[in-house]
Amino acid sequence: MESYEAIKNIDEDEDVEMGHQQKQIYESRSVLNNAETTKNKLHSPTSLSSTVTSISTKQQQQHQQHQPQTQRLVSLDVFRGFTVVLMILVDEAGGLVPAINHSPWNGLTLADFVMPFFLFIVGVSLALAYKKLSSRVVASRNAILRSLKLLALGLFLQGGYFHRLGDMTFGVDLKQLRWMGILQRIAIAYLLTALCEIWLKTDDTVNSGSSLARKYRYQWAVALFLSGLYLCLLYGLYVPDWEYQIPTEPSSAPMTFSVKCGVRGDTRPACNAVGMIDRTILGIKHLYRRPIYARMQECSINSPDYGPLPPDAPSWCQAAFDPEGLLSTVMAIVTCLIGLHYGHIIVHFKDHKVRMLYWMIPSSCLVVCGLTLDLFGMHINKVLYSFSYTCVTAAAAGFLFVGTYLMVDVCGYSSLTMILQWMGKHALMIYILVACNVFPVLIQGFYWGKPQNNIVISVPLSIVNMLIMFSTIAIIAE
């Protein structure tokens, strides 16, 4: 049967090619006849001018007819814009409403969906960007360059160069530069996913779900390998005792804290393999200094918010821990690869019902798998980027994407989401200006009398960021 289909396709290609050849012969004869007619009219300047104008007009019309008509997937921009709004909401209101802020350790809150949603969108976009490749080498070089640019931007914005608001200084000690961060994680996931899409796909024809899986089977093998590697390291590595120091006054020696571990397969804050790998490879001075687990009841009297230490606080409460560490980034790549699969469905299937069906099936399987693993002890944990967290958040991204696609691209309610579309197209700019506090840091340099009297300190930061965002939207809309 497959041989028959292949022969049928070859015959169809030959018929199309013969049709093109006959069309070219007909057009050549027409050109000769037109040239002979035009030759008789060359004695008149007016006729010559009109003939040249007519020929150029026909050529422009033929060129416009042969240009491919590309239609942008509006739901992808809307989904990205919604994620930006969600990011701003949890950043500005998370301190006031701890229920939507990041979970201190195990569990899932509204803020914990932001990072997986961005990674999912990156995967979908890569499938659309690399559906047709003229050169794999050139595409790989461009992907590496984009990743390096994003990585450099992340180091500049999140490496510590910009201090917290209210601190009128800037600059970073390279001995304490934070190597990892949100943009750095996205850069790594983008690069590896792009290389998988460029190099790890076969030439199989896709006409069903099984043929889709067969075409991209090597990419699924990479996702399974990364998941297995993460689980083996998380539950198999031995975590020894360790210690860290907290600087005090310049004239005093730093305080040293010892953490007792000597365990294997622990997923609590003090003795997990994720933190151990980061401390060993990156160095504890290059990690995030305000760990999320400092909001746990063991470490804060204001839990689930930051606060003073309780009298009997464990020794690890003030230790640095990076929520975008090396081992957790491995599972972030898997989220990006899942998004890549959803993008493949867009590329190979054009029917709306088929697309949504092939999106709903893996989303349903992922959410069942993630909740089952959480029930049996593999807890949903954003900081560790656990396997159950990967499944549940990727499923949530899939369900939300299906709903957005149904509303915008199928039912046509795109005019109701114009602001989200704009925010989705300028997500990186909004993230830099608002989430990274670049614009507030710049405008706090304007003050009355003394540096402390500036608009950033006088007005709540959430109001400043919202004014910045809506002002930018109004300027672009005009």
Automatic annotation (TrEMBL):
InterPro entries with a match to the protein in the record: HGSNAT_cat
Pfam families found in the cross-reference section: HGSNAT_cat
Spans through the membrane: 73-90, 110-131, 143-162, 182-200, 220-238, 325-345, 386-408, 428-449, 455-477
Stretches for region Disordered: 1-22, 36-68
Biased composition (Low complexity): 44-68
Keywords: Membrane, Transmembrane, Transmembrane helix
Domain Heparan-alpha-glucosaminide N-acetyltransferase catalytic: 72-196
Keyword Transmembrane: yes
Full protein name: Heparan-alpha-glucosaminide N-acetyltransferase catalytic domain-containing protein
Organism: Lupinus luteus
Organism placement in taxonomy: Eukaryota, Viridiplantae, Streptophyta, Embryophyta, Tracheophyta
